[in-house]
Write a structure and sequence with these properties.
The complex is a heterodimer of chains A (584) and B (635). By secondary structure, chain A is of the alpha/beta class. Chain A has helices at 12-44, 53-101, 105-111, 113-137, 140-155, 157-204, 206-211, 215-240, 243-267, 273-315, 374-379, 404-410, 425-429, 438-447, 451-456, 474-486, 504-517, 530-533, 553-559, 561-574; strands at residues 335-342, 351-358, 363-367, 389-394, 397-398, 411-414, 492-496, 522-526, 538-543, 546-551. Among the domains of chain A are: 1-143 and 302-318, Up-down Bundle (ABC transporter transmembrane region fold), CATH 1.20.1560.10; 335-573, Rossmann fold. In chain A, 62% of the residues lie in helices and 9% in strands. In chain A, helix 14 packs across helix 16 (474-486). Chain B is of the alpha/beta class and 635 residues long. In chain B, strand 8 (450-455) and strand 9 form a beta hairpin. In chain B, helix 9 packs antiparallel against helix 10 (301-313). Residues 1-11 and 631-635 of chain B have low confidence and may be disordered. The chains are: A alpha/beta (584), B alpha/beta (635).
């Protein structure tokens, strides 16, 4: 937690002043009962009639002044704490997103998308709230506690000794109760998660449920998990509700004991009746600030896990960085693999000693069964991952010698799991080139065979895609992604299974478009369908991470068993009749 | 921040508060005893709390003042001890009541929420498919999560606090006036000022909280979107733009949440110190009155101290009530949204023809209890109560069927077709042509607007929905599996299936091989919609699920996603085995399926534009020919 404090630097002045104001508030607040005691002493004395009104007014004004000062300090502190706390949260979030932007693909894989999101939302919130609580309470509660105790002790040691018993007693009660309650609460939260998941599943699968007439079955299932959830909620709450009456018991007992002890002290004239009233008003304050201090410590411990998770992200260093004197110009689109092996992390090699050469401007197909590492192979070209052995050369230069930005500008890649972002179609396309003119957009979309359907939308290129591009079909999405990649005007274009949801005719149209309009660009195509790559200049066959063969369609058909198998399987009618509903 | 946000931002406001509150009260009223117990305990604990302060006055005035400076003796202490005994009794009542109150509240809340959730789920489960079409799952989820949660927040704390705060406020008010008649005007001004400040600040902070929620929604949404697409961001060198955009929305969030927090946290010192200001004023005036009197009224020191004690306790319940007021509004709005779903019209079913196990003896169909593999439609005639049986064959006919989802735009025009038992009918056509719609009409996910659909000659509207659907198997394009073991998932098709039947179905679907290759075999637990299996394996399971149901009529929606060739082949073989001997309606994407169909229906804009088998249609050289040869594109 404290390691994250560097993100609060900008607000340190606020965070620094805040505790002082808090102390001011507390001190003024504490002085008030003392003044009150003086007033009570005056009016409860037998010679009350002789008391001077002036004294009383003076005391009243003093009290009023204290209250106003306390109000001023408290309000200003609240404001400053909010500024510092929320600013801190915003800065941590900002630092996180910056950090993640610098992540390499392997870092992204390591953390997983869902966990990154949780860290940046829920965890940051927890930390922010803890920080806010700390600047407001770190000094306030303990000071309140100590000063109230000190005043009580100065008034009467005998009465104050009661606290020596009470406070440890509270600690013991909490130390026993809290962990059990927390455990039960965690069980309940877990139940709640799976309860939600089961509703969600039911909603998602509603057609299956209805088609198989399983509504009653699902209702029964729900009833069980609902009752289960209710039971664990009651189980957890049962313990938590003991807290309040227990504390009341402690408080009441304290009051009674204090009355008893005070009565004795009063007979001995150790304290006055006025002092007794003052002590009385401190009892609550002492108990409450004590509880708050404990709660704060507990919260600090609990947020430690969140802080650690955030810290992990911030400490992750990218293993892929620019070299010292980077080359910024990619000469041409040639690609060469020299004895390349690759593994994710420390796993076993999934690309084994691959060597091949692609001339600039060629169109290359890559085929192989699922798990033959086709995607891994091409991801080495824009240096999304680093090789474990061997080198990858682009434009005749090792990719590690380029400036990353320049390399990735020259190598455009359409990922298999592709994503569109919320915004209009034009916004999304301009990811490829933010200065692209409307004409350039249209041209790229024509090559990707996307212009026609875009133009058929009422809003054309200004059609809003919604989050994740939900408003277009799978095939349309793929074509938009291709157009987006084309707009980069790359030297190398890589399509990783990017036309799987597009029908064969369109697929062919896109390929001929690529061939004709970007003759100098090297085109690398990964596909499942033979028809998608059969007219490529060269086809690379991958088998289990090894280059099995390289050749043209005809050559491979002649000599390569794997290719022959795939080809005949697809010819025998299992080829997608995909234009039909391909865009469903 | 709950994940399933309803409409982001805007604080929900109930539309018809009175009706909703009434209805909510009936749920609370159902737990009569708990409610009664709770109210009694709340009253007891509040009274005990109020009384606790009363003890101060006689204690100071009579007992303690009297003993000051006197010699210690038991007789002297006796009144004090006696007094303490009474105090102890009241305190113990207070403690017990506070526990009882909390316990009643826990049970009351848990039971009401349990009932509401159950009713909500049962109601939602009975709603027709069209209900689900028109709203995102997130919105339905939000009723189960956000709305139930806001009810919980109010019921578990708000209800008791509202009652006890009301008692404390009224009680304190009464006692303050009793002890300090002379200060009545002061008390009233004090209350008015406090209410005014609470209200003003409350409105201000509500505004900022609303904005904070909105900004939080957009920041979290952006984070989610960008992190999901992080690899694309990298591939496009878009890191700088992301940072820039994020710092803008992050700054907006910072501003809004700073405002919200400021107002929320200023309330405490403000109210607290306002109490002190009151205290100072009241003390001064009180002291003056104690000394000089006020229009003939006098105050003793004890009553002044007691009075001041009450005035200190006064601000807390007012702040609480104002906070609970917001909670109450949220809870009522939540309840209203829940009730809205409870009031949705459930899927209706006037069918009376049922599906029964049957035996065929000498050409006569008789009903029997045990599973025979033969099924019959049991038709109870309404006119004379006589019963006739008709063997289930799998003949499906559409007669001039017209359909519209919304009653405005017709999506199927005058469609007529038939499928004889064991025939395969393939539908082809572009998105939105009406392929899926036709299949959804057969199992009555939707009701047709005009025309007739007959099943074995019986109008399907006369067949009980569940029996109709039991006679139809479905393999959907998106394979949805459930959390549970593989065995459970296959058994979903037939809850009574034995292990052997399940293995057999898996074998038929070509799934057995990969299942047994898994370390836990059929006991492998699938999580999160079966995401630990590949797309192809999930499809094999959904075929096995349909196979174990063993329905005479099958509706298939072939998947289009790219699957490697080997698995694709397995799926194809599995599908073919499943289709054998059954009437099949298939939304086709594969060439082999279309080729093998007895009849192909080419749909366009909700009309059948071509029909016939593969060779017929090819020779017609129409749309099907164009599709087949790849000259025409569908998107």
């Amino acid at each position: 937690m404290f390691k994250l404090l560097k993100y609060a630097k900008k607000y340190s002045i606020y965070a620094f002043i805040c505790p002082f104001l808090m102390v001011g508030e507390v001190i003024f607040e504490l002085l008030i009962p003392q003044v009150m005691a003086s007033i009570v002493n005056i009016i409860s004395s037998p010679d009350v009639a002789q008391a001077s009104l002036e004294t009383i007014f003076k005391l009243g004004v003093r009290m009023l002044t204290y209250a106003l000062c306390s109000l001023f300090c408290g309000s200003l502190a609240a404001r400053l704490a909010s500024v510092a706390g929320m600013g801190f949260g915003a800065d941590v979030r900002s630092a996180l997103i910056k950090q993640v932007q610098s992540f390499s693909f392997s870092s992204i894989d390591k953390f997983s998308t869902a966990s990154l999101i949780t860290r940046m939302t829920t965890d940051v919130n927890t930390i922010q709230n803890t920080f806010l609580m700390l600047i407001r309470g770190l000094f306030r509660a303990p000071i309140q506690l100590v000063s109230a105790l000190v005043i009580c002790i100065t008034i009467s040691k005998r009465i104050s000794s009661v606290f020596a018993v009470v406070l440890p007693l509270i600690v013991i009660i909490l130390a026993i109760g809290a962990p059990i309650a927390l455990k039960r609460y965690k069980i309940m939260l877990k139940k709640f998660d799976s309860f939600n998941a089961s509703i969600q599943e039911n909603l998602m699968n509603i057609r299956v449920v209805k088609a198989f007439v399983r509504t009653d079955y699902e209702k029964e299932k729900f009833k069980n998990s609902n009752d289960d959830l209710t039971a664990s909620a009651i189980h957890a709450e049962k313990l938590i509700i003991l807290g309040e009456p227990l504390l009341m018991l402690v408080m009441f007992t304290t009051i009674m004991v204090i009355v008893l002890v005070s009565a004795k002290a009063i007979t001995l004239m150790e304290i006055s009746v006025g002092d007794f009233t003052a002590v009385f008003s401190y009892v609550m304050q002492i108990l409450m600030s004590f509880l708050f201090t404990i709660a704060m410590i507990a919260q600090l411990f609990m947020s430690e896990a969140s802080a650690k998770r955030v810290q992990e992200v911030l400490n992750e260093t990218s293993d892929i960085t620019d070299p010292e004197n980077p080359i910024t110009e990619v000469k041409d689109g040639s690609v060469e693999f020299k004895n390349v092996s690759f593994s994710y992390g420390k796993g076993k090699n999934i690309i084994k000693n691959a060597s091949f050469k692609i001339e600039s401007g060629e169109m290359i197909g890559i085929m192989g069964a699922t798990g033959s590492s086709k995607s891994s192979l091409v991801q080495l070209i824009p240096r999304l991952y680093d090789t474990s052995e061997g080198e990858v050369l682009v434009g005749g230069v090792n990719v590690k010698e380029y400036n990353l930005h320049s390399l990735r500008d020259a190598v455009s890649m359409v990922l298999q799991k592709n994503v569109l972002f919320s915004g209009t179609i034009a916004d999304n396309l301009r990811w490829g080139n933010k200065d692209a003119t409307d004409e350039e957009l249209i041209k790229a979309c024509e090559i990707a065979d996307a212009h026609q359907f875009i133009a058929s939308f009422p809003d054309g290129y200004n059609t809003d895609l919604g989050q994740g591009g939900v408003n277009v079909s799978g095939g349309q999405k793929q074509r938009l992604c291709i157009a987006r990649a084309l707009l980069k005007n790359p030297k190398i274009l890589i399509l990783d299974d990017s036309t799987s949801a597009v029908d064969t005719a369109t697929d062919a149209k896109i390929r001929s478009g690529l061939r004709n309009s970007m003759p100098d660009t090297t085109k690398i195509i990964i596909a499942q369908r033979v028809s998608s790559i059969s007219d490529c200049d060269k086809i690379i066959i991958l088998d289990n991470g090894k280059i099995n063969d390289i050749g043209t369609h005809e050559e491979l058909l002649e000599r390569n068993e794997i290719y022959k198998d795939i080809y005949s399987a697809q010819q025998n009618g299992s080829d997608d009749f995909d234009e039909i509903g391909g865009d469903d | 921040m709950p994940k399933h946000g309803g409409p982001k931002g805007a604080l929900p406001k109930p539309k018809d508060t009175k009706r909703t509150v009434k209805r909510l009260l009936t749920y609370i009223g159902k737990e009569k005893w708990l409610l009664a117990g709770m109210i009694i305990f709340v009253v007891l604990s509040s009274v005990a709390g109020v009384c606790a302060s009363i003890f101060l006055q006689p204690l100071i005035d009579d007992l303690l003042s009297n003993i000051a400076g006197k010699e210690f003796s038991f007789a002297l202490f006796k009144p004090v001890l006696k007094y303490l005994q009474i105090m102890a009794v009241v305190f113990i009542i207070g403690v017990v009541a506070s526990y009882g109150k909390a316990k009643c509240s826990v049970f009351l809340t848990a039971r009401i929420l349990n009932t509401l959730r159950k009713e909500l789920f049962n109601s939602v489960a009975d709603l027709p498919i069209s209900f689900y079409d028109s709203r995102p799952n997130g919105e339905i989820m939000s009723r189960f999560t956000n709305d139930v949660e806001s009810l919980r927040a109010f019921l578990s704390q708000g209800l008791t606090q509202l009652i006890s705060s009301a008692i404390t406020i009224i009680g304190s008010f009464v006692f303050m006036i009793y002890y300090g008649k002379a200060l009545t005007v002061l008390v009233i001004i004090m209350v008015a000022v406090m209410i005014f400040i609470t209200k003003t600040l409350g409105e201000k902070s509500a505004y900022f909280f609303k904005r904070q929620q909105q900004e939080l929604g957009s920041v979290n949404g952006y984070i989610e979107e960008i992190i999901e697409g992080q690899k694309v961001v990298k591939v496009f060198n878009h890191e700088e733009e992301v940072k820039e955009h994020f710092s803008e929305i992050n700054e907006e969030l910072r501003k809004a949440s700073t405002g919200a927090n400021t107002f929320a946290s200023i309330l405490m010192p403000l109210m607290g110190n306002l109490t002190h200001v009151n205290y100072a004023i009241a003390a001064s005036f009180g002291a003056v009155i104690a000394i000089k009197g006020f229009f003939g009224m006098h105050m003793t020191a004890g009553s002044l101290v007691t009075f001041l004690q009450y005035s200190r306790n006064f601000s807390q319940p007012i702040t609480q009530v104002s906070q609970q007021f917001n909670n109450a509004i949220m809870a009522i709005a939540g309840a209203e949204r829940i009730f809205e779903y409870l009031d949705e019209k459930a899927e209706t079913d006037e069918g009376y023809v049922t599906l029964v196990n049957a035996k065929e003896v000498n050409g006569n169909i008789t009903e029997c209890k045990e599973h025979t593999g033969t099924w019959a439609w049991k038709h109870t005639h309404t006119s004379d109560g006589s019963i006739t049986y008709k063997k289930l064959e799998g003949l499906v006919e559409f007669e001039n069927v017209t359909f519209s989802y919304d009653g405005k735009k017709t999506v199927l025009h005058d469609v007529s077709l038939y499928a004889k038992p064991s025939q395969k009918i393939a539908f082809v056509g572009s998105t939105g042509a009406g392929k899926t719609t036709i299949t959804n009409l057969i199992n009555r996910f939707y009701e047709i607007s005009d025309g007739k659909i007959r099943y074995d000659g019986i109008n399907i509207q006369k067949i009980k929905k569940e029996d109709l659907r039991r006679s139809l198997g479905m393999v959907l394009q998106d394979t949805h599996l459930f959390t549970g073991t593989i065995e459970d998932n296959i058994r979903y098709g037939n809850l009574d299936a034995t292990k052997e039947q399940i293995v057999q179905a898996a074998k038929l679907a070509n799934a057995h091989e990969f299942i047994t290759a898994l370390p836990d075999g059929y006991d492998t637990i699938l999580t999160g919609d079966g995401s630990n299996l590949s797309q192809g394996q999930r499809q094999l399971l959904s075929i096995a699920r349909a196979a174990v149901a063993d329905p005479p009529v099958l509706i298939l929606d072939e998947a289009t996603s790219s699957i490697d060739t080997r698995t694709e082949k397995l799926i194809e073989q599995g599908m073919d085995k499943l289709m054998a001997g059954r009437t099949v309606f298939v939304i086709a994407h594969r060439l082999s399926t279309v080729r093998n169909a007895n009849a192909i229906m080419v749909l366009e804009h909700g009309k059948i534009i071509e029909r016939g088998d593969h060779d017929d249609l090819i020779s017609q050289q129409g749309r099907y020919y164009q599709l087949y040869t790849g000259q025409f594109e569908l998107s």
